[in-house]
Amino acid sequence: MKIMIFVCGEGLGHTSRCISLAQQMKTAGHEVLMGAYGYSKDLIKKKGLKTAEIIPEIQLVGDSGSLDLKSSVIATIKSGQFMGIGKIHRTLKEFKPDLVISDSYYTGIFFAWLRKKPVYLMVNQSNMEEFFMGKGILMGCLGNVTKRFYTRVFRKVDGIIIPDFPMPNTICKYNLDFEERVLNSVFYSGPLVGKKYKEVREAELTRPHVLSTIGGFGYREPLFHKVIETARLDRNINYTLLSGPSIKPDKYTDLPENVTIMEFIDEQFPYLKASDIVIAPGGHSMMMEALSFGVPILSFPDMGHIEQENNATSLEEEGCGKRLEYSISPEKLLEHIHQLIEDDAYKDKTQYLRSLSHALNGPETITEMLGSKHMNQNSQKNI
Prior knowledge:
seven-stranded parallel beta sheet, Rossmann fold, 43% helix, alpha/beta, single chain, 2 domains, 15% strand
């Protein structure tokens, strides 16, 4: 079977879970082509997966830990990137997929429909209009248009995949709001994680150890500095900080001995397995990876990013970690670090989710489900 996967490249969360799914599909004998852009495309290529370049649908803009949605919309329009939309149609025409999976990339869905291909949408948010709330009349109107748009998409796709734990353990649950008429097409696959816990050899790190993935966007840099200041307060706790593509580690010369800074790495799982806590933004895929490895999370959602804020709230309610604010002091952050290290309740819950993730085996489950549906559809055509 030939499968096309479209990837939303804003942040690496969509990319990491699509890589996991594509690798499993290749292992199962399917031919996979991934549509991606920017550093998302570069990372996919490094994994040895076949890739076609597509256009970005939105350009994110923010400052000092806050996502500026209005500026993001304006920047997207000014970029003129929609002029390259024909590439998507040509790619589908040349590749001739049997089915299409779109991870939050809606342009790919429409062109797949034009070519009468089965389409499955992968999302961890179905209430995107919340992004536009409280931002003025114009943005409110845009939010209403957005809701009508994706509501129609949900009705027409062949299936909706939620790459999260099934209820009641769903971390993205506050971001989900489906009409009753589409609920039968919603499937909770479990996390899509690139490596299984048992097959990962943990990194040689001194414990207790904190892994910080704060870095990716420049507006997170103040929090990056705050984690370093927190590390100075207790030299018995060790830290590995991933700087991300926007922040180079060689600019930090005065570091305490318990801190190591690394550039973005393709393979985080050995570090996850060797850590006691993860400090991360509110991105869904990073949460799925940490929880699938049994590691509690201190989450700092981007201010004004409703999806991340909802994820972090659910994370705390489920007893898997804490939702924190960018304004926190280093002293208070250290208190939370001690709490997550010393309170066994957090470890017990995350270890349970690690076992659940293993049992669900999201990438394999989705691959088998879609393969079975495709065979059934072909059988019906031949009757």
